[in-house]
Amino acid sequence: MVKKKVAKVLSFRYKILALIFIVLAGGLVLLPKHQKQEGIKAEQLLSNVISPERYVSTDQIAHKIINQDPSFILIDVRDSISYNNYSLPNAINIPLKKLLDKDFEAYLNQNQFDVIFYSNDNFYADQAWVLCNRLGYKNLRVLKGGMNRWFTTIINPVKPNDDVAAEEFELYSTRKAASMFFGVVYPDQVAEQSDMQIAAPKKVITVQKKKKRAAEGGC
Amino acid sequence: MKELEKVKRISIASTLFILAVLIGVVTYERPKNMYTINTKSTLEKLTKNDYLASIDNIHNENVSLIDVRSQYEYEKGHLESAINMSTPEILSDDSQSILKELKEDNKTVVLYGNNPQESNIPFLLLTQLGYDNIKLLNVEISYFQNQLVTDQIAIEKPIADIKAFINESIKNSDTGIEIDNNKPAKKIIIVQKKKKKGAEGGC
Q1: Which of A15, B24, B75, B164 has its CA 20 to 30 A from that of A92?
Q2: Which of B29, B39, B131, B161 would you mutate first to test chain A, the one with the most A CBs within 10 A?
Q3: Residues of B in contact with A10 (CB under 8 A)
């Protein structure tokens, strides 16, 4: 009698096994908060974010632009009105609101260029940086001080007092020369104007999407 | 006899498999600090721009202040009734338990640092961890005769119209020559679309 019952149950054994596996597979789908855990861990993000390594100074950027360094792209995260009014040469406008749009992902998620975020200050640029860093994008930088510091250091550098070190004067003359490159005209520099009319050459940037390696076969 | 052997093997194998899965689930180490929102919804929250608190609104029972500067700076001077929780320590157990408690008590947590740029960072992290009661104080802290002074500042306010400044300088140079404004040259960017590759089989 018992044997018969066991035999009856056993005849369903494969179905029962299959059912167990399906239930287990369903459990995997419902793993807690799986979708929300995108990107790197919070601890990692914190240690990235407290390091000041991401900041680049306005002087460095001015130097790079003037020397036509091809290794970086500038991303303006302000709205399009401010961008159209004035922006750094060759910058791309990605308003903070649209940062994570699919269209712009190719600019942000690539290994070819350094990506430099800037806004009026570095407040919004930092926010953009944190979000992209969480997603694991590489080579991201932030322009320290943003456009405001760009104005006070490069566009309108303050002439140092007479009693400061010689380096200050050197820095000032470098900055002044840089500001002339970016279009500012000084009354005492009229003679050199012919040079300045040469517009910054167009930069052609080709962004290649990161290629995922094809799955390689077993044997 | 053969059939019985087969059944035995299958059941042993499946028991082992289920056991392995169960052990995996039980011992799965969950990260200590979990995000509760993804980057998309974080961005939505940030662009709503309602996370700023002004200095006039913080003298309130429902508000607790958190100083995110270092302990040294906190001891030098801090706002009244502020708790010190420096940015690198924001994910530690102590800080998290304090923050959780504050959240359960329905208190608004207002972060401040030397400037809003500084408190921006812990704010961003905590927002992504699911604290929706966090605000930023938009003040800059300075010292005047050893007294802590707070200045309210506007965030991301342009200090000058750079285009106007450049145009002005051209006018003042009084050359009579018209100069083209160096408009940012349009970049030509070629994005290569990812090609879908066919799945390659094993063997």
Answers
A1: B164
A2: B39
A3: 7
Cα–Cα distance for residue pair B50/A65, rounded to 1 Å: 36
In this predicted structure, the answer to whether residue A194 has a pLDDT above a threshold of 50 is no
The residue-averaged pLDDT of A163-183 equals: 87
Least confident of A189-193, A205-209, B14-18, B81-85: A189-193
Between chains, do B31 and A85 touch, taking CB under 8 Å as contact?
Answer: no
> B132 to chain A nearest CA, in Å?
16
Q: Per-residue pLDDT averaged across B101-122, rounded?
A: 89
Q: Six-digit token pair at A185?
A: 């005209």
The residues near A80 (Cβ < 8 Å, ≥ 6 apart) are A93, A95
Q: How confident is the model at residue A33 (pLDDT cuts 50, 70, 90)?
A: low
CATH code of domain A53-183:
3.40.250.10
Please, how many CA atoms are within 13 Å of residue B105, restricted to the half-sphere of its CB? 13
Query: What residue type is A57 in one-letter code?
Result: S
Domain boundaries of chain B, sorted by first residue: 39-152
Question: What architecture is the B39-152 domain classified under in CATH?
Answer: 3-Layer(aba) Sandwich (3.40)
The minimum CA-CA distance between B27 and chain A, rounded to whole Å, is: 14
Q: CB B88 to CB A50 under 8 A?
A: yes
End-to-end CA distance of chain A: 52
Nearest-Cα distance to chain A for B83, in Å, is 20
Query: Inter-chain contact B155–A121, Cβ cutoff 8 Å?
Result: yes
Beta-carbon neighbour count of residue A6 at 10 Å?
A: 10
High-pLDDT (> 70) share of chain A, %: 84
Q: How many CB atoms lie within 10 A of CB B128?
A: 25
Lowest mean pLDDT among A22-36, A53-67, B41-55, B102-116: A22-36
Q: Name the residue facing A50 among B121, B170, B190 (closest C-beta).
A: B121
Q: What is the dihedral of CA B66, B67, B71, B76, to 10 degrees?
A: -130
Query: In sequence order, what are the beta bridge partners of B112?
Result: B67
A211, B159: Cβ pair inside 8 Å?
A: no
The answer to whether the CB atoms of B35 and A182 lie below 8 A apart is no
The domain segmentation of chain A, as residue ranges, is 2-32, 53-183
SS3 B82: strand
What are the start-end ranges of the E strands in B91-199?
108-112, 134-137, 139-144, 147-152, 188-191
B115 contacts chain A (CB < 8 A): no
